[in-house]
Amino acid sequence: MRERIIEVTLYWLKMIVLAGVLVFLIRGFVFIPMKVEGNSMAKTLRQNDQIVYEKFSQIKRFDVIIFKLSDGNTYIKRVIGMPGEHIQYVDDELLVNGKRVEEDFLGQAKIKRSSNQYTTNFDTAEILSQKEIPKDSYFVLGDNRRLSKDSRSFGEIPSSQIIGKARMVYYPLHDFGLIR
């Protein structure tokens, strides 16, 4: 009987240690938690939202990414321009290589109000001093365009500075869901 108790205890001890290691690996390398600071991604993300991000999937247009600039600051922004593209905003319309692209994620925020634009006119040729976004770099904007410090002020983001892709808000519970 005593041997059976020791055997069961050792089994459960091994399972607890294994579960702890799995949680550590998943939390540290697969889905990493992070707290949002600032309002540059509002309505998508708000101040103090708790999110998880991952480091393993390929970056596509309109993904929300986390990156760290050489000044040490960490940012969360949306990818608007991909390597080799020319980006323009003209009268609140996104143009990629001269073709109009819809930004459905902005929803009602982008309703035109006479002369009050949501996204001011710009051209990556002027901001980056070259027409196309460099290889292995991305052009990012915050969803709250009027308050966002983004590629319009600090330029393109090299892929080497990208930490990961934001995937889900897990707290507060009323904001729980996937990031789109």
Automatic annotation (TrEMBL):
Listed GO biological process terms: signal peptide processing
Enzyme Commission identifier(s): 3.4.21.89
Name of the protein: Signal peptidase I
Top-level taxonomic group: Bacteria
Recorded family membership: Belongs to the peptidase S26 family.
NCBIfam families (alphabetical): sigpep_I_bact (TIGR02227)
Keyword annotations from UniProtKB, A to Z: Hydrolase, Membrane, Protease, Transmembrane, Transmembrane helix
Membrane topology: Single-pass type II membrane protein
Active site: S40, K77
Subcellular location: Cell membrane; Membrane
Catalysed conversion reaction: Cleavage of hydrophobic, N-terminal signal or leader sequences from secreted and periplasmic proteins
Signal peptide stretch: none
Coiled-coil positions: none
Gene field: lepB
Cited Pfam families: Peptidase_S26 (PF10502)
Xref: PROSITE patterns: SPASE_I_2, SPASE_I_3
This protein's GO CC annotations: plasma membrane
Classification via CDD domains: S26_SPase_I
Transmembrane regions: 12-34
Molecular functions per Gene Ontology: serine-type endopeptidase activity; signal peptidase activity
Peptidase S26 domain location: 11-171
InterPro entries in the record: LexA/Signal_pep-like_sf (IPR036286), Pept_S26A_signal_pept_1 (IPR000223), Pept_S26A_signal_pept_1_CS (IPR019758), Pept_S26A_signal_pept_1_Lys-AS (IPR019757), Peptidase_S26 (IPR019533)
